[in-house]
Amino acid sequence: MSSAFKMKAKDINFYYGNFHALKNINLGIYRNCVTSIIGPSGCGKSTFLRLLNRMNDLVLHSRLEGGIYLDNKDINTPGVDAVEIRQRVGMVFQKPNPFPKSIFENLKYGLDVNGRKDRQFIEQRAMLSLKKAALWEEVKDRLDESALKMSGGQQQRLCIARCIAVAPEVILFDEPCASLDPISTAKIEELISELKKEYTIVIVTHNMQQAARVSDYTAFFLMGELIEVGRTDEIFTKPKDKRTEDYVTGRFG
User: Fold this and answer.
1) Less CB within 10 Å around the terminal CB: N or C of the chain?
2) What is the DSSP letter of 240?
3) Mind listing the pLDDT tens digit for each residue in 185-234?
4) How far, in Å, CA of 205 to CA of 39, rounded?
């Protein structure tokens, strides 16, 4: 397996009960790059994303065949701790989901779960995470205020900071701008471009312009299959598969 890949899906088949949701997926996620996953609703994008940090473990009657590798180790091997995997592979969801606590408590939460008690360490990590999420200047004087008082865009950046606080290696974004206005969306996109210097990033998006703007590689899913993957500029300008061309030019989906 190439060391250029931070993560890799190998021969993945995934089932919800009898429904075959993902079919024979093979996909490498390059280190320190943004990989976007595009495709129409119900094509398996979010299902695939959730396999990358074992979120689908929580789904009853689901079954996985094949391997998901992080640094060439299968994350579903017996004895591998799902909590540790979710620390290394963090996730930011479609709707901002800050806890109904102060801004600081939101950032402290993941560190508490991981057993960090050193107040000075926690304060430094909180500040660093807010800076990396381009939020520090906006909230540094109100860290004790409820996170629920923040705007939607700020809440989403707080969720990104909360994810960063536990020092992940990979960040998964599931439609992170779906509920945000254009200005907040632009800030998140700018942030994603900045974060790839330190993290490997995978983003599921319905917004093809967003995929074209932020990602280095794009994977096109259709009806549970990976139709095509390549450099983003090639997928959008010289796709090899007619179905990819039809989707990116707006003929369907």
Assistant:
1) N
2) S
3) 999 999 999 999 999 999 999 999 999 999 999 999 999 999 999 999 99
4) 8
Q: pLDDT tens digit string along 33-86? A: 999 999 999 999 999 999 999 999 989 999 999 999 999 999 999 999 999 999
Three-class DSSP labels, 58-108: HCCCEEEEEEEEECCEECCCCCCCHHHHHHHEEEECCCCCCCCCEHHHHHH
Position 253 in a domain: no
Angle of the 119-132 helix axis to the 103-113 helix axis, nearest 10: 120
How far apart, in whole angstroms, are the C-alpha atoms of residue 8 and residue 95? 27
The two three-digit tokens of residue 199, written as one number: 């993290």
Collapse the DSSP code of 51 into the 3-class scheme (helix H, G, I; strand E, B; otherwise coil) and give the result. helix
Strand ranges in the chain using DSSP code E only, listed in sequence order: 5-16, 19-30, 34-38, 62-70, 73-74, 89-92, 170-174, 200-204, 217-222, 225-231
First to last CA, the chain: 34
Tokens linked to 249: 């030019």
Q: In total, how many domains does the chain have?
A: 1
Rounded to whole angstroms, the Cα distance separating 127 from 136 reads 7
> Any idea what the CATH number is for the domain that residue 126 is in?
3.40.50.300
